[in-house]
Each structure stands twice: as C-alpha cells, then as structure tokens.
Amino acid sequence: MAKQVQSFNAEIKQLLDIVIHSLYSHKEIFLRELVSNGSDAIDKLKFQSLTHPSLLPDNWQPTLRLEPNKEARTLKIIDNGIGMTQEEVTQFIGTIARSGAKAFAQMNEEMKNKPELIGQFGVGFYSAFMVADKVTLHTQKAGTNDGTVWDSNGDGTYSIDSVPRPDGTGTTITLHLKEFKAEDEVQDFTDAWVLKSLIKKYSDFIAHPIKMKGEKDDETLNSQKAIWLKSPSEVTQEEYKEFYQHLSHDWNEPLKTVHYKAEGTMEFNALMYIPSKKPFNFNTQDSAFGLSLYIKRVFIMADCKELIPTYLRFVKGLVDSSDLSLNVSREILQQDRQVTQIRKNVTNKILGSLKELLTKDRTSYENFWNEFGATLKEGIPSDPANKEKLQDLTLFHSTSSDKMTTLEEYVGRMKEGQKDIYYITGDSLNQVSHSPYLEKLKEKGYEVLLLVDAVDEWVVDAVKDYKDKKLQSIMKEGLDIDTEEEKKQKEEELKQAETILRPVMDTMKKTLENDVKDVVLSERLTNTPVCLVSATQDPSAHMQKLLSQMGREYSTPVKRIMEINPKHPLFEKMLKATPEQQTKWSEILFAQALLNEGSNIPDPVKFSQQIAELMVQAAESTKH
C-alpha cells in the first residue's frame, strides 16, 4: 500500500493541543506512559501465546529498550510485545478522535482544567508530543510479516505506510526531541543519567527488564522487584527493610510492616510501614503525606492523600491496584467508590495492626505512642466510623502510675462508688500532675487522666463516655465525687461556712465582677485557697487558650466561676481585713487561680507589686 497522508479534523487538533500543553503537569511523564504501553504490549503477547505458542518468536525474551542519540536528538522506546496491524494503528491512535470528541468540544474550557477522559493507548501515546516535534511509530503484529509506519509532527497531519519492521514483532517509537530553552527547565531526554533516574522513579518495578546500552554492555535500568506482589512468606526482613528505606529515606528500622492483598470486589496489594521514629519535619506545614500509588507496578504518584486518612499520615507505603479509575494523565484520582473502598480497607488494616501491637507487644506500642499518639488521636473527633477502634488504641498518662493506661484498664481499676472517668487538660504533665484541682480526688484515691496534647480537648468532646462511664473534667463545675452519705454529713457544715464567709464572697464577687461569673464554696479543694472552674456548657480555659493560638479567639472572653476553699485559714484572716485589703486580696487570689490552671495573668507587674506589699506587711507584723 502506498504511503497515505491524512489530516486530523478540527476536534482532534483541539484535543491534541490540550494533551500537549495542558494535560500533564510534568513533561517527563511521557516516558512513563510509553514504557507502560510497551509493558502492556509484552503482557498481551505472553497471554495470547498461552493458547497460540506460535506467536512467540524463537528464543523470545520480554524486553523493553531505550536508545538515546545525542547527536540526532532522538530517543527510541522499543518493545518486543504484541505489536499492531495497520488497522489497529488507525483504530488505537485514532481512539483519541472517537473518545467523546464532540462532547469534548462542548466542554473545552472545563476540560482544560479537569480532563476526564479515560486513559487509553491513544492518549498516553500522544504525550510524546510534549517533548517531540515529530513522532514515528514502527510496529508489527505478532504472527504477521506486515509492518506499519505511522508518523506525525502533531500540527494537523499524519502519514501511514506499510513497511516490514526489521526487528519483527514489536513496536519502536522514535521521538525527534524539541529544542528547549534553558529557562524552560526541561531535562535532556537523551542523557543517560536522566533516563536512568526517570525509570527508577516511575518504572522501577515494571515486570520486564528495561535496557539501555551502557559504557560496555547493556544495562538493566529497573529492579523489577515488586516485593508487594509476593506472598509475605517469600519476602525476607532485609528486603522489607531495604524497600522501606528506598520508599521513606528513613534509615531507622520500621516499627511494623503491614503487607497484604485485598481480595473480593476490590482487589489491590498494599505494603505499608509504621515508622519507629517521627521525621524531623513531621508536623511542619509543608510536610507531604500519603501512600504511593502504583497501577500494575507502574508508579503513578507519591503522597496520595486520598488513600489514607490524615490521622494516619505517619504511615509510609504503597498501594498497587489494577482497576482504579484514573483520568487520562494517570495523575489525578477520581473521587469514586473504588478510592473510598481502598481507603477504608487500608485504614482497617492499619488499625488492626496497631491493636495487635498493643495486645502483643506493649513496650513497642508505647514507643509508637510516644512518637505518633497525638496524631492518631486526631481520628477520634474526625472519623466517627472508627471512633470506637481508635479510643481503644488510645493511651493516657494518669495519676495512677508512670505507666500509661487505656480506658479499658482505667475502668477496670475504678474504686467502688466512683461514678465517672475523671480527667484534667493542660499544657504539660508537670503542670497538671501538681494541679490543685486534683486535691480532693487524690484524697479519695480516684485516678485522673492527665491530658496534655492539644488535640485532647476535641478527643474528650467526641468520646463523652466509655462503657457507660461518663468522661468528667475535674476543672468544670458540678464535680460530683461524694457519696450521698458524705453529702448529708457536709450539708450543715457548708451552710454554716457560707453564712460566715458571705461578706467575703460578696466582696470578691463585686471586685471580680468583670472577671468571674460567680464566687461559690468549693468541695474539690483541700489545701489551695481558690480555683477557677468552667460552667458545664462552656469551653475550658485550656480550650480557649488553644483556640486563641489558632486565631479563633472568642469575641468576648468566657468568664469562669471562682470556687473558694472554706477551710483555708486565709478566709478567716480576710474576714478581719479592711475593705481595701479584701479588694487587693481578691485580685491576688484571682491571679493565683489563673496561674494554677495554667493561664496567663492580665497584669503581671501589678501582681508582683501586690505580692511584695504583702511580704512587707507580713515582715512588719512579725516585729510587733
């Protein structure tokens, strides 16, 4: 057949322009596309040869080759796969024309920003025009002697001719590379180092060897070691470790390896690692996270956030799926049921592995918790579907011992008569473990959870109760820790104390009317004179502080309630003080209460002066 020259129609020109200039974010991806096509062609030949052995040439070995030529500025991508007939070349390369071209024309502007074509051979092939001003394809179908040459410069026409392929079965794509200016920042695709790097990045785990001529002999550029496709029993610990370091650039041993194959309606392979140490930039704003995504061993994207929830962002690893929906560039995942299913599977598997670690190796789990516990807890308020699993994985510091505890363990140790699970929030363990809010609970032998991670305020708001036990802040009003019998014994005592101290309480309330909601007697203090508590429905002081740091400050500060300890000798002295002294002491006590809860005092200089005055007065009184 004589060589034919044909014109693309207007719709194809328009679509080709989008592919070349808009569709791919990195021009280097053309190599991934063309190598993937070659690998697919080899797979098809191997499959068809199972029923038609004669299709395989003598001594056939599956191979992909790269042949760069610096002088001619060409790059050849060669495979010995299934090849194509001339009809198939016209059909497959032309698929770009029939893949909804009219619909494309109607949605042109929208598709420039969000291409939604399904990835097909034609589109991946045309990515070559991002880097080449002319592309030549020479192919020959297995089992035939007829070759086909197709070429085009991408500007409106292409030619097609019948020419036997010298190498027989397979396909050779020759790219006549464009001249790029230095400011275009395009790599030299005839450079051996550049090609090796790109194969390592995108196609290292392709099942077939990708070869290129080295200084002396042919060099295989890809490892072909997709260990995630093997059975876990076939992979050594050294191989797991080596791949973890390749993937994460973390030279520490991973704490745990999670390797499994999901089967059923959604099939994929996953190999994931829980690190033993937090990276130095783990919680920085620009820190990337997510699993690497592969399609049939081909690297598609790193840091794929869609495959894992944010609170598992410490997990390193990959997912390899053969039927995930992708757009034409293989770069942007469609938000569909398959992605959701993979994410759900991955999450369940990781949480199950952490539960196993907690149960079987508590020391290792506590090491994990010290590194990533605050991150994992973010899932309790953000992932209701897994809230119960996550709260069972959560460890807490407590007043019981230096050993951390689960909620289940806490409930198992609760004292007879204890109604609730008690907790306190703050900025540091040192601060909360010495807090005056603990005084009465320590006296009764009740354990208190010490919560010092920023996320804990949201965690306790999401959990609310555990095994029918309410989570109760000891920094809120209405702390009910006495038995009915104890309440009856104290009822008369409190009435008398309130009658006696009413003048002082009124003075304090008037003095602090801009700062507190009320002044009441306390049942939680035994040694400290005063404390501030939040009303039941109000945010804690710690929560207000956190929101302020996040730039979400309340327009009007939420006032708290001041509780005073009726048994503290200070108030007996205060009753005998002058009105002016009572006012000063009220201000000092309020500042002390703020410091005790971990809040800043509004006027540190005034507070220091007031304390100095009291010290002078105390010194003078001892002289007389």
From TrEMBL:
Keyword presence, Cytoplasm: yes
C, as annotated region: 546-624
Annotated Pfam families: HATPase_c_3, HSP90
PROSITE patterns, A to Z: HSP90 (PS00298)
InterPro entries recorded: HATPase_C_sf, HATPase_dom, Heat_shock_protein_90_CS, HSP90_C, Hsp90_fam, Hsp90_N, Ribosomal_Su5_D2-typ_SF
Swiss-Prot/TrEMBL keywords: ATP-binding, Chaperone, Cytoplasm, Nucleotide-binding, Stress response
Entry superkingdom: Bacteria
Chain spans, region A: 1-330
Compartment list: Cytoplasm
Keyword ATP-binding: yes
Predominant subcellular localization, coarse grouping: cytoplasm
Histidine kinase/HSP90-like ATPase domain span: 26-181
CDD domains membership: HATPase_Hsp90-like (cd16927)
Biological role stated in the UniProt entry: Molecular chaperone. Has ATPase activity.
Subunit structure: Homodimer.
Similarity comment: Belongs to the heat shock protein 90 family.
PANTHER family xrefs: HEAT SHOCK PROTEIN 90 FAMILY MEMBER
Name used for this protein in its record: Chaperone protein HtpG
Organism encoding this protein: Bdellovibrio svalbardensis
